[in-house]
Queue: 2 jobs
Job 1
Amino acid sequence: MDIELGIQNVARPVNFSTDDSADKVSQTIAQAVESGATIDLTDDKGRRIIVPAKALGYAIIGSETKHAVGFGAL
């Protein structure tokens, strides 16, 4: 699952992949925003991404499909 978090006053978004489902990620973010706590997610390499909910600008929760990129002659 690809995740993109936009942080207020930060030019670049935080991008990472996680093994969690879209529903679990969405629920974690919603609960953190509602309570004013921190968003605490774990990426697919075991690293923790912790963002203050008040600093969140947006969240994009992508599909679980991995896309291969290829280059070929036309």
Job 2
Amino acid sequence: MIGRIRTYLIRYSRLQTGTVSYLTLVQEAELGLNLEISHEKSRLNEMLAEISATEHEAGRPPLSALVKVQGSKGQGDNFYKLCEKMGMGEWRSLKQDEEFLKNLIRDCRAFWRDEENFQKFS
């Protein structure tokens, strides 16, 4: 399932603009999760965190920057806490910095739209 999520988000970053909701991700990547069930939503969060940590360790932007909770303006606290764990700064400061998330999304798109990166790392 992690592979499907990663592939979907790479494709999304190359072909779409904006961000993708949890619900759209679950439906379009055919994950079969029910987000109304808290442990299934938690499992999705864990997989997104794992993907982003792996990408970050490899020097690539965190793909979970592209996923947001429907109806919210951006990311939840867990995303920023993950960024803090990855050494990007104190999570509250990151959350307050309007440019931080925009830059991550921009970097993600730029990285994956580069054909050489796509061929090498996707």
